[in-house]
Design goal:
The complex is a heterodimer of chains A (about 220) and B (about 800). With about 220 residues, chain A is an alpha/beta fold. Helix content of chain A is about 35%, strand content about 25%. Chain A is built from seven helices and ten strands. In chain A, a hairpin with a 2-residue loop joins strand 1 and strand 2. Chain B is of the alpha+beta class and about 800 residues long. Chain B has 26 helices and 25 strands. In chain B, strands 17, 18, 19, 20, 21, 22 and 23 form a seven-stranded mixed beta sheet that branches. In chain B, strand 1 and strand 2 form a beta hairpin. The radius of gyration of chain B is 33 Å and the shape is elongated. The two termini of chain B are about 35 Å apart. Chains A and B meet through helix 2 and helix 3 of A and helix 23 and helix 26 of B.
Chain lengths: ~220, ~800
Amino acid sequence: MLLQLNNIFKWVNSGGQRVFLLKDINLEVTEGEFISIMGPSGSGKSTLLNVIGMLDTFDEGEYQFLDKSVHTLKEKHRSNLYKEYIGFVFQSYHLLDELTVKENLEMPLLYKKYSSSERKAMVADMLDRFNIVGKKDLFPAQLSGGQQQLVGVARALIGNPKLLLADEPTGNLNSKQSEEIMDLFKQLNKEGVTILQVTHSEKNAAYGTKIVNLLDGRKVDG
Amino acid sequence: MIKNYFRTAWRNLVKNRTFTLLNILGLSVAFGVSILLGMAAYYDLSYDRFHDKKESLFQVYKVQQTPNGSESGTSSPVPLAEALRAEVPGIEKISRHLSDVLVATKGEKQFSLDAVWVDPDFFDMFSFPLLNGDQAVLRQNEVVITEGTARKFFGRTDVEGETMDLLLKGRSTPFTVSSVLRSFPSNSSLEFEMALYFTDFPDYLALRDKWDSQNHEVYIELEKQVSVAQFEKSTLPFVQQHYKGTMESSIRDGALPNEDGTYFQLGLLPVEDAHFANYGEGPVRVVRTYPYLLLGIAFLIMLIACVNFINMGIANSVKRLREIGMRKTLGAPKKQLFFQLWSESLLVFFMSLCLGTLLGYLLLEPFQDTFRTAASFKDLGHAQVLFGAAITVVLISFIAGGYPAIIMSRLDTLQALKGKLEVAKGNRLRNALIVVQFCIAIALISSTLVLQQQLRFMANKDLGYNKEQVIAFPINGKRDSRQAVQLLREELAGNPDIISVTGADNILGRGTDGSAYTSVLGFDYKGHSVKTNMLVVDYDYVETLDLQMVSGRSFDRRYATDSLGVIINETMAKSLDEADPSSATLMLDEGVPYRVLGVVRDYNFQKLDRAIGPLTLFMKSDWDLYYAYVKVAPGTLADSYDRIKDTWAAIEPNAEFMGSFLDENVDRTFQEEKRMATMIGAGALIAIVLSCVGLFAMSLLMVSQRQKEIGIRKIVGASIGSITFMLAKDFLKLVAISFVIASPLAWWFLSDWLEGYTYRIELGLWFFFAAGFLAAVIAMVSIASRTIRAALQNPTKSLRTE
């Protein structure tokens, strides 16, 4: 068992009324799964992903991650937890424009305890694995969208996370680039990375092993 | 259209409340402070400018060559003015001007009045009109008084023809009031409460032909076609004739001639420069440092506030890019956008100016007290001053408000719509401006530290005499001064808290009466000329002040011949160049031999900006004393003060007691430095506060610019600490650059300033490191709240926007 959500509620108060963003969510993720979260806009997909990624809090319920109760952890321990075990991929890549590909990959390592030579080795390894050695000194603006997302995925994986969270990873890409990224995800999943993706596309969802449907913050079947 | 401009401007300002308030706050303070400082500077710079003939009025000064270089001064001998008028061409009018303090009596009451003895031309030359606007006429045995004096003495102003009894050389002498002068501006270096005919001066006859006794200034009005250089040149033969003896002794003592090859010269100083002239060692120096320092600080503070304004303007523009893009797509031309944005800054400037003026008005009184200036808003009431101020404000608002307006109105429409601004260029300007702010702050902080330290050093320095236990006060009554001191001594005898009583003809430090003078005596000793400060004292002077005798003895009542004895200090002993100075005999010019009884250890009898000069203490009982000194026991200082005050009131019932402890007097001599330290310290404080406001705004901008980056870094695992440090690092870099730029400049100015003090602190590096450190800490504190908040913020919020 990688993580388990029990009766998760999240709400905001708007005009004296409680607006539920997540309502009674139960979810189990075991290692090696590739889950797609689907649903229309505003159904709470991203919110759920953020809660799982520990970037966002929830108001009620329990969350176990690797047998640790996330809801009782302090902010600092929580951030240590996701720093170590979770990697994020975004729709708009979120690479730093003023850093080169190599530096973007290196950045997460700066916040962990690696020596400079270890960092270099890990970055070189990752560049190699994703076939972007030739682009290592380019800036994000000099890459195509697919290549940027490739760097984004590489950055997410450089710390060897157990879980990869992807929020519409192909939303900004054309179909060919999408396919490449989804193939990569599948490949990674085979190599043992657990993946949770939010997507609008049935086609992308089909790459996964399981689909979770959301509507108005609630899990629906089917 | 214009109404529309201002309406949208107003709404935008209200919308950006934080920035608007910060801007108005900063600018109001800056305007208020600048108005006050500018006013004080204007007041100072317009000293002596109210005379109609100011362009042709001059003060005569002399420059004499001595073995130690040249020496300048204004004191002139009595026959000089008449001789100049008779022998040197180009003089339209000439007047002597001798300051004095006279006691006027009216029944039981006594008034101590500042008097000047002048020649009749005086009122022709200077603009001191009568109450009805006419020119005053001065005749023998008559006195011209000012409006204030008339009110003080008679209680009314229509007093022409009344009689005033003045105490001259202890004799009451009647003078007729010929006319009453209108009050004249307080920024006049010629200040008096009454003017008298020069030749009525009691010692006039004795001094009429004496060229070696110099006690007054001479003012000249030059003929229109004569230049200063021409006049100075035509005095050369005159000097050769009248100052022959002076020049010969200069040559004999080994003085070097000046560039013109002479040993003595007369010069003319424009009256407008008189207030700023420094005489003494070297040629006369006209220094307007103080008003320019005021203007400089005002300028710096204004600059800081404007930098804030510009930076905040650019910062805000990021938020408003969409609005501007929208306006552009709707067809707004550049010019219109510019005017719309500029109208916002005009509005802010206008409000700040009003608030600033109000602030200045409210702070006027404390300002006048703290910086002892009589400047007021009245002085600014001239059309040209107001016009200049208005132009300045518009110009500042144009530069400070116009720059961001231009940048924004020139933006590419699409870029603006997307909300992206090419920030690199703006950042460079922003950084340069912040560096300027911090340079100013660091320079002002280090100056404040050095000034304070020097002040403390001077206040705590061992001056060589007991300043804590001695009370001094002027002997200002009708009695003979020796007799008064003796009475005081007898009255206070037997009181265990009173240790000893003495008197002298000069004060140590500066007393509450504010007067100060030096008297210097020159004579020949064994073939070389010797100059010494002279001090007339009473018995027990050495003991009262705890001076230390190096050799010989102090004055002693047991030896009747001590009235022809003197005590000299070590410096004087050295200049006598004698193996055993305590057995020397000085032949002063009357031909009376004065025997040296003892040598006293050097003590700082003058202000600390000069080295201890030679000093000779005389004890001739027929020479007047002007100050009484009382040494009291420690522990009961305040009680003893009251006791002495009461005793003095019994001895001189009509005289005011103006006593103070010598350490207070010493403090008073630093008033100028204290004023400067307060000024710079206040300037530093305001500069820092304004810089903080600016930095705070900058941290807002930076955080909003780097929001995405902060979010990404957090998601990949950056801690709060590392993000805060990353954000702060950029500002720390700027502080470091400012430190590198400002420190050498400040060091240079400060070491130059300290050069002026013989007794000064070591200009250590720590002053600058402390200032730099302080600036860094302040910078960190002012950006802390925003950066920490940004670092704490949930990264999903900043990344969700897309």
